[in-house]
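ok so I'm stuck.
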Amino acid sequence: MKQQAATPGRIELRFGTATDRGLRRLINEDSLLARNPLFAVADGMGGHEAGEVASRLCVEALAASALLTGHTRAEDVALALAAGDASIREATGSRAGTTVTGVVLVEESGNPYWLFFNVGDSRCYRLRGGGLEQITVDHSEVQELVDLGRITPAQALVHPRRHVVTRALGTGSDAEADFWLNPVEDGDRILICSDGLTSEVPDEEIARILAEVHDAGRACEELVQAALRSGGRDNITVIVVDAAGPGVHRSSEVTAPAEDDEADSDTLPRGLRSPQQGSNGTAGGRTWSL
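replied:
not stuck anymore, here's the structure
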């Protein structure tokens, strides 16, 4: 992992990535983008090259947007996702789609915040103070059943329709993203992953690996290997991002932004209307500062 010293008063981000086609898939239809301050994972659907194209076009739209400036709002992410949605539909005739989830490091009232976004059932987690929290909410049939109280989270893991998503870019009628805005705290570790990880490895094991393996790149490799040992039935893609430095909130110093009513809490409302390809067995890590 390359390292870069933090500038006084600024945030240091260290990150790693890993992706693998798994043990049963012929190709890797996942794509990832890890370019400070934006990190995203897209899980293509549609089979063979169609899914691969959809996920690639998604991350290309994010990379081509203005989201790499560090002065991003949820509306900017929504516009980038809308561009990706349109690009996929044009290229594939709406026959393929992709999930996408990720985080952007942004500033609100001069303070650093995580802006999480999600479409589909890829996920973002945050490890903080030794506890792992799932930030995003799956857009899937089984999640809706869990929300309605018809099945338990444990039953959702083995439900026959657990892979059916209710939102996606490039296909279907709903490509709306959900957003969450959370203050950054010193020592935050963010995990962004496709469901090839979460369908194979329980949250408890994910939390253990994230807590015990301190190097971000090595943690990514360990997570992928855990998924492969559990069956590796899908493509597996993970990004781990660590935040540290004098510019990061301490637990006792967290303040909510005060620019407008929408930013009065540390979570944006869900449902804001939306106006690099990973290869098998790769891993890496870098450090950036904002």
